[in-house]
Structure formats: structure tokens, C-alpha cells
């Protein structure tokens, strides 16, 4: 069995970041929670803000971590979209032409 490390502040931060990331990544599942239908208007914006607020309170002094994790998710989503469409930064004429062809179909 490998030696056990003593628990440190860095372990706290790693675990906290993982918990926040899981919560933020699963927001869509939380929107569908029974009893929240009446506050799920505007694409779940109100629920999303509450989730982010809860995550910030949970993070306490490290509340900035929530924004960092949100930023990672946005960048990852943009990269996924670019990968799916073949788009490069600023786009290319060929990619735009192909996209327009697909839209016309």
C-alpha cells in the first residue's frame, strides 16, 4: 500500500475545486428538479444564479474559484463547438461556405 500523505490545504483546495466543478457541470440536471418549475423561467437563469451563489458561499474565502471554473467551462464549450464545426479563430471562407450550405438544407 502506498504511503499516506498528511491532509493539507492544497488537498482542501483540490477537493473544493472538484466539488464546485461537478455542481456547475450538472446545472442542467438541477434545473429539472421537481418543485423548481415555477422559478425555472428565462432558461433557468434564476436557478443558475442561485447555484453559483451557493457554490461561492461553500467556497468561502476561495469564492473566486467558482468564476475560474465557470471560465474553464465556457472555454471548453467554445473549443468543442469549434472542433465540431471545423471553425478556426476568426473562421475561414471555406468553413463559412460549408456552414451556409448546411443552413440552406
Automatic annotation (TrEMBL):
> What are the start and end residues of every segment in region (Disordered)?
77-105
Which protein is depicted? Uncharacterized protein
Q: Which organism is it from?
A: Cutaneotrichosporon oleaginosum
Amino acid at each position: 500500500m502506498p504511503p499516506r500523505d498528511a491532509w493539507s490545504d492544497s488537498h482542501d483546495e483540490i477537493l473544493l475545486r472538484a466539488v464546485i466543478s461537478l455542481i456547475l457541470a450538472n446545472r442542467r440536471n438541477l434545473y429539472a428538479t421537481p418543485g423548481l418549475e415555477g422559478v425555472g423561467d428565462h432558461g433557468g437563469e434564476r436557478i443558475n444564479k442561485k447555484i453559483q451563489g451557493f457554490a461561492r458561499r461553500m467556497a468561502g474565502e476561495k469564492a473566486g474559484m467558482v468564476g475560474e471554473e465557470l471560465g474553464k467551462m465556457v472555454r471548453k464549450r467554445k473549443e468543442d463547438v469549434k472542433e465540431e464545426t471545423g471553425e478556426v479563430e476568426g473562421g475561414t471562407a471555406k468553413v463559412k461556405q460549408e456552414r451556409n450550405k448546411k443552413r440552406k438544407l
